[in-house]
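Task 17 of the worksheet. Students: predict the tertiary structure of the chain below and write it out as structure tokens. Keep your answer in the requested format; marks are given for formatting as well as content.
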Amino acid sequence: MAPTKYTNFAPRAGLAYSPDDQSGWLGRILGGPGTTSVRAGYGLCYTALEGLSAGIMSANPPYGYDYTSLAPPLFSNPFVTAASGQNIGQRFPEPIPAFGASAANPNSSVDWSQYLPIAGVPSFFHQNVPPYSASYTLSLERQIEPNTLLSLTYVGSQTHHLLVLTSANPGDPARCSSVSQTDQIMPGTATCGPFGEGGTYVTSTGQVIQGTRGPFSSQFDAITYQKTLGNSNYNALDINLRHNRGPLELLAGYTYGKSLDLSSSLAEPVNPVDPNLSKAVSAFDMRHSFVASYKYELPIGHLLNRRNRLTEGWSLTGITRFSTGFPVTLYNNNDTSLLGTIPNGINNNGVDTPNVTLGNMEVNTNPRNGRPAFNTSLFSLPVLGQMGSAARRLFYGPGIANSDLALLKSLRLTESKSLQFRVEAFNVANHAQFYGAAAVSGNISSPSFGRVVSAGDPRLLQLAVKFYF
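Model answer:
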């Protein structure tokens, strides 16, 4: 685990100021004493690593009871490789060595070959440090009238040492390419290619290459580190309006922001050669977002000129949202880079992306017209041994335009008890919402590449009764 750091200083600073100018153009803008405030803040925050992140390693050998076959085994005999018939031997029960065994403190009483080969195993890097974030805000609030408040806020953050997944023993594309052609190998032996980083190859001169991975041997296939080398940054402008007068309550907000990172979750590995090559907009980045919540007390009793328990207590409330979509994540699970960053149980995809050429992306945010979500002809598989030229995320999928409404009727029973009857409608316009981080398939290996593959719920109606006491 990461060592204790007693020098992790986490200061906080804040400032609030209310100008009192009353004359001139500045006074007209600021509105006089007590109507405008300026606030600024800065904070440096450290966080602990999730226990689950390290707990994933609990089954790893040599201290766990877990074995992952390098290739699909026979169902009847899980220690025989189905394709080759190779018997790798009985793996259980595995002897658990004494704690603390290492290269510097070897334990010669244990047959370490019992634990090899190891495939698809995550490892917590021994030099990890606590992640931290520097956050800062600057806001201006102006009371426009007694019941209306407008605020403008800049929000930013820089986060460092985020825990990300990266290959601990990646393949060497040059080494694999050197034995990828039949004239480079001994006749009758295998050639190296995608997903072959753990194989054995014999050159035309008779040299035996035991896998293309490094720095560890090929006995450690597709193992990964969980390393605190990630970073991210977020910047946004928030505009909020709050109004509360008479029968109307309104809160409306607009956000224009951008989030960048190396990895948006532990399921997204970063490039093991150069992590900065994985930098892209975050999977949850939403460039524009407008949300309004409101409540209006219906004047039924006033309109009917009949005020009683049946005509009073009616109100309409709702939430309306308009926002741009999430970015489309591009995948290339063909291992064309020959790095061998294949899924290992934590990540479902590797670091490879497709190639992209210049052209009209033809982003289509309205798939009702039957066209793809983007121009798939601009994408292709890279040459073996090379990374794709496309960033992990380049463009955005369909957004959302949705309203949820509720009609409420409150009925007072006693001074302290009342009933509230609710008729609630979600997606009241029954507008198809092709919205979400995985709404558009960005996997070039999939037949649905470039298509919208999921949508939100249709209109949903429900009745509810609340009892207040």
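Marker's comment: The two ends are 51 Å apart (CA to CA). Residues 48-123 form one domain.
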